[in-house]
Amino acid sequence: MKVGELASVLGLEVLTGSVNLDREIRSGYTSDLLSDAIANIEEGSVWITIQRHINILGVAKLKDVAAILIPNNLQLEQEVIDKARAESITILRGSLSAFELSGLLYNALKRG
Amino acid sequence: MVFFFQKWYRLTGRIPHNRKDMAVDTFQYTPKINLEFAIGEKDFFMAGESASRVKKTLQQLGMKQEIIKRISIIIYEAAMNVAIHGSQGMLRVFITPEEIMIETEDTGGGIPDVDLAMKEGYSTATHEIREMGFGAGMGLPNIKQCSDELKIDTKVGVGTLLQATVYFTDNKGKTSR
After folding, report:
1. Three-state SS for B73?
2. A32 at interface of B, judged by CB pairs closer than 8 A
3. Is A38 within 8 Å of B132 when comparing Cβ atoms?
4. A57 interfacial to chain B (CB closer than 8 Å)
5. From the CA of A108, how many Å to the nearest CA of chain B?
6. Do A53 and B139 touch (CB under 8 A)?
7. How far is Cα B63 from Cα B76, in angstroms, rounded to an integer?
């Protein structure tokens, strides 16, 4: 499943415009601890996190994530969104909790 | 292996010393790639960026994904430690055909009890740092797990020198290229 498809299927907001929407999603990971994320995110994953400071972009880039998914409709600073766009990192946002989004993502990837 | 040395040669213009059979006499046998990054206090982005850049270099050298993953974790965690605790410092990466050595040197507060700092979950990070998702007490344990060799030279009030080595060859390390 591609990032753009996931966004439309789950009704997610795309904060970074058309950046990387064709990227294939291989897996998912939910964590707010950056050390844990760095050690365990698989390449091509959607990373669900409530962290919204600029350092999540460093993690996303290093782990080559398909997209960052922010739950609970949390707000992001424009600086982070601009930087993400410059670095070709997609940021999605959903109104549901990390728990619910993880479940929906899991099922969506399982269906293929 | 040959493929690696071809890429190596393309990138460095140098021939590994143990592969002189591949070389023409006029080449210099100094098979090294050295990378250096200055990391300022709370400069988290640079810390992440440095790991990304080294990762890219290793990918260009055609190294195995698994070993790149280990090295990326070491660099990210070591550089983050400098940004969080180190006041300011340097990250240096020395790559030879046999091994990679990752070194951070900082002028921070030093580590009073290294054994304790090595314990998973132990952290001296501030509340603000923890709120950002750092300070989980996983940094040094992650580095140790990913390294073949780890040396920490630290003095309270002076700073810390960390040297982590990953070997590319079977006879010395855990994994091969």
Report:
1. helix
2. yes
3. no
4. yes
5. 27
6. no
7. 18
- What is the CATH number for A9? 3.40.1390.20
The pLDDT, as a whole number, for residue B169 is 78
Closest Cβ opposite residue A35 in set B49, B55, B136: B136
Instruction: Kindly report, residue by residue over B66-109, the tens digit of the pLDDT.
Output: 999 999 999 999 999 999 998 889 999 999 989 999 999 999 99
Domain that holds residue A101: 3-111
Question: Which residues of A fall within a CB distance of 8 Å from B52?
Answer: 58, 61-62
Q: Please give the single-letter amino acid code of residue B65.
A: Q
Q: Global pTM?
A: 0.82
| Confidence check on the interface: ipTM exceeds 0.85, yes or no | no
Total domains, chain A? 1
Kindly report the length of chain B. Answer: 177
| C-beta atoms of A58 and B138 within 8 A | no
In chain B, ranges of CATH 3.30.565.10 domains: 32-167
B176 neighbors B108 (Cβ within 8 angstroms):
no
CB contact under 8 A, B48 and A58: yes
DSSP string for residues in B113-149: -HHHHTSTT-----HHHHHTT--SS-HHHHHHHH-SE
Is A54 touching B (CB cutoff 8 A)? yes
Q: What is the pLDDT of residues A35-83, one digit of tens each?
A: 999 999 999 999 999 999 988 999 999 999 999 999 999 999 999 999 9
Question: What does the pLDDT look like over A81-102, one tens digit per residue?
Answer: 999 999 999 999 999 999 999 9
| Cβ–Cβ < 8 Å for A83, A54 | yes
Q: Does domain B32-167 have CATH number 3.40.30.10?
A: no
